[in-house]
Amino acid sequence: MKHFxxxxxxxxxxxxxxxxxxxxxxxxIRLEGSYDYLLQKxxxxxxxxxxxxxxxxxxQLRSFESSKKAVNGEYKxxxxxxxxIPADNMYNYFANTTQALLFMAGKGWRLTDVVTEVFSxxxxxxxxxxxxxxxxxxxxxxxxxxxxxxxxx
Length: 153
Description:
By secondary structure, this protein is an alpha+beta fold. It is 22% helix and 39% strand.
């Protein structure tokens, strides 16, 4: 019993010690909807906040031009079954939110929080007489917070 307790104590202390020395990095993303005119369907783009040197795997995603006359390169689309495609050879184009989050997880990012971002805008809309009047609108969208272990030393 004494040896069991000693081993338990050793493993517990080493687990606590290793967790305290992990270096983490953080990334905030918003998912934006867009429309693919060629395939006539909606898709999701990852919009990551800039200036995180440890998020190159996200920043390297290739932009997808979604206009009617766009000509895109020969890059790949995300496939959860083939999560080994390098980000610099893949479009920032996901069928839905789940695919975008699976991509983030596949790159080692762990979702830590989701908050609702609320903002308002004033738009000029025509009234029944054709006169423009200011109309306020309130919009919201989710903001995703991720963390990633970058160093275990």
